[in-house]
Amino acid sequence: MPENKKNAALAALTKLLMAITVSIAVLWTNNLSALSILTGLEIIIALAARSKPLWKGLGGLAFFAVILAVIQLLFSAPFSVAIGSAFKMFIMAVSLLILVATSSTQEITASLVKQCHLPYEYAFMITVVLRFVPDLLKESKAVREAQACRGFHPAKNPLRRIIDYMMIIKPMVFKAIARSENMAISLELRGFSHKGKRTFLASRKLAWLDYSVLVINALICIITIKSF
Amino acid sequence: MLKLENVSFAYAINNKIFDDINIEIDTQEIVAIAGRNGTGKTTLTRLIMGLLHPQAGRIKLDEMVISDKPPYIIAKNIGYVFQNPDHQLFASTVYEEAAYAPKQLGMTEEERDKYVKQALINTGLWDKKDFMPQTLSLGDKQRLSIASALAANPRILILDEPTSGQDCRERTVLLRLMRKLNNNGLGIILVTHDMDILAEHAHKVVVIADKQIAYAGTPRELFSDEKKTIELGLELPETVRISKEMEIELSLTPQELYEKITAGRKKNA
Questions:
Q1: Chain segment A126-163, per-residue pLDDT in tens
Q2: Contacts from A218-221 at CB under 8 Å and sequence distance 24+?
Q3: A170 to chain B nearest CA, in Å?
Q4: CATH class of this structure's domain B2-219
Q5: Is A178 in Cβ contact with B75 (below 8 Å)?
Q6: Count of domains forming chain A
Q7: Does the interface predicted TM-score (ipTM) exceed 0.85?
Q8: Do B71 and A170 touch (CB under 8 A)?
């Protein structure tokens, strides 16, 4: 487990609730000033997390937000709508990225099951999706390299390019299916369907810091929406 | 001749994998690349293939500098077979899978058909040309990966741990195929941890250790110095170990060992 995940100051549930609160707030308002303040809030939280992967992700998301705004402007969307939707996408994605980058998957599952009372099977599904994202990224690199060694060179024409990328997607889909089958068998063999009471190694109760941050976060969201 | 001249490479600052290495690889031979885990065996092949680019030095194939070329250019001369064949299989038939590289590299239909057929016959997959690649056994999938690299008609084939996960029969079939391809003039660069394969099949061995080429020479020279072999993080092959135990001349293959033992018996009789 990475050091920043092991020693995260806030519980996974706190970060999940913060992500939900901020997401509701950004869906509530279309005011650009309010959205700017919420963007600033998320950036401050992300920087405070002191996680390099999170900072890298922040840069990537900012880039996508700019692209989103540009595309909307190109298709004649009003300026406020284009910038507003870019802000909204950025804020929601960053809030979820903070949760994922600074909490272990075990802790997220434990929070969803024990504190949010989500059935274990559903919580586990979410965990598995999060768990496999880095693996899939690594695998897509391996597949791209394997195909490059056979002359794969995506065309410049966007339509042709999409067809070319099927050479990357297909092996990944085949591998994902095989992997999910292996995983299902391995889980069953280790008692996944057992209906007894489950215990969690990563279970963590909320502390005063969690409650304080939740209240402050909620207040900032409410004040920001009400003020503009 | 494939030449690496003063090549240095690092994945990150202060984490050099190769520091000013020089090596010449004969494109007619089977050259094994060996070394401990993490010494850079696969990195070396990726540099050759253009998947990585050296920070200093250059790689040349005969007189052509290839270290600044992308993989799809290098693929015309060098084929790469990855350890995991599932990373590349996407087509709906074995034939289509093998025909991918020639198509990408711009061969005419006539050339394509010729090389694909030849590659599938060589690898023993012609009878399965209409099968779906995903339904093949691991050994067949590995041979299909080789066939799809061969179909591009390369001069050199890089095999990265080709026998890993294969059963005894598949392993033998694959190694025989490798010998046959080499006898037909194809150069082979073999990345392996298996000292028995290395001793039996390689003409030359390149051992990587401490960011350098720690050894480049024949397997016989290497294994005759047990101390050096161990220092390089390698093990003696079984045949060499038995030769030493029996205090007979060094044998690299079971056949050679058998001949020396029977010759010794006849001499004693």
A1: 888 877 777 888 888 889 999 998 888 888 887 788 88
A2: A218/A21, A220/A37, A220/A38, A220/A41, A221/A21, A221/A22, A221/A24, A221/A25, A221/A38
A3: 5
A4: alpha beta
A5: no
A6: 2
A7: no
A8: no
